[in-house]
Amino acid sequence: MAYDEGTAARVRKLLAGQRHVAEKKMMGGLCFMVDNVMCCTISGRGGMLFRVGPQAHARMLKEPHASPMEMRGRIMTGFVRVSDEGTRTDAGLKIWVKRALDFVATMPAKKAAPRTAASADAKAKAPPRGQARMGPRR
């Protein structure tokens, strides 16, 4: 299942006034980064993930339509999953995006990893994902 483009357009509109916003396609969804820090993600499985921080985590889980974000069997403290029902209205989406932005604003901006010719060359030489490199072991 792919992420919802309509929701992506709504999130873009809410983040339009923010500086240093980037989008990254990840794990079948679309992640919105602010200052190179994950803010929120439209999940390919439906719903959205919001970064609310560890201090607000338990409180946010009491909100309607919110549940823990689980990854590989682990609860990711500081992140919550909000069902489509919780972000269906513009007002609902705005509340959750603001919560995530408020938390991200407390974090130091991360510098993006520089893309160098050496890293691009190494990536070009890497075998396709899921295939082992053939040759002698070192």
Task: Briefly say what this structure is.
This protein has helices spanning 5-15, 57-61, 84-87, 90-104, 117-125; strands spanning 21-26, 29-34, 37-42, 48-51, 66-71, 74-82. The chain is an alpha+beta fold.
Describe what this molecule looks like in 3D.
The protein contains 5 helices and 6 strands. It has 138 residues and is an alpha+beta fold. Strands 1-2-3-4-6-5 form a 6-stranded antiparallel β-sheet. Strand 3 and strand 4 form a beta hairpin. Helix 1 crosses helix 4. The longest helix is centred in the last third of the chain and has 15 residues. The protein is globular. The C terminus is likely disordered.
Architecture blueprint of SSEs:
Layout: H1 5-15, E1 21-26, E2 29-34, E3 37-42, E4 48-51, H2 57-61, E5 66-71, E6 74-82, H3 84-87, H4 90-104, H5 117-125
Antiparallel strand pairs: 1-2, 2-3, 3-4, 4-6, 5-6
Helix pairs in contact: 1-4
